[in-house]
Amino acid sequence: MVLVLTIGWIIFLSSYIPVHFLLKGHDKLRKKVERCLVELICMFFVASWTGVVKYHGPRPSIRPKQVFVSNHTSMIDFIILEQMTAFAVIMQKHPGWVGLLQSTILESVGCIWFNRAEAKDREIVAKKLRDHVQEADNNPLLIFPEGTCVNNHYTVMFKKGAFELDSTVCPIAIKYNKIFVDAFWNSRKQSFTKHLLQLMTSWAVVCDVWYLEPQNLRPGETPIEFAERVRDIISVRAGLKKVPWDGYLKYSRPSPKHRERKQQSFAESVLRCLEEK
Fold first, then answer.
1. Which of 23, 65, 190, 223 has its Cα between 20 and 30 A from that of 265?
2. Contact at 8 Å (CB) between 215 and 234?
3. Is pLDDT at 125 greater than 70 in this prediction?
4. Would you call 70 helix, strand, or coil by DSSP?
């Protein structure tokens, strides 16, 4: 399987490098070819895992004022979706070889990166997202609103950013079959390189992808309510259980004062219930 991926990289780089530098004066053609090449290398990645992926529903199209949102199990979600459509994804900036790919090849399809540690990044990224969805020629924008990888049994709370763009939201549901391998990536315990090797040495990566009916903000509906409605749609289709957790708790624990306030509030509510009885 490593051989399959190696051959894929040789074909990809021998085509991508000349296209990237020789077609600099022909941006529209260059973007189109680079988009096809990114889809190609993602196909080689999926082939290296003996991927068996079933896609349901119409293939995404390039249109202005639309954003695609999906539940998130692993960084391979992006690869599985990318082999069908060259999405521009918003993703955490990673170190090492993944970061190198982000800053070179994936920027060619319009991907947007952020750093959780930088508070100013949020404003910059929000502006980039608004600008991206307005352009008709940009690749479709893909966001994983959970903000972290979840174990494909649950969906955690969706961040509202994707639902504040005044755009049509197109839900995508992904469900992996754990018979052959667990596709969940726990980034706190395993590097992405080890995760890929685990997938390559497994029997197969089996999953279903559903492109669901586009949704728009309803009159009187808040972005948070819109996000929850779309989470309902994805959870039902993929057979996932909704839980009221914030995915960012994986990266930062609540302060002692915050926990103390929550405990006090809980104690007060219990006392009120007892008094009412």
1. 223
2. no
3. yes
4. strand
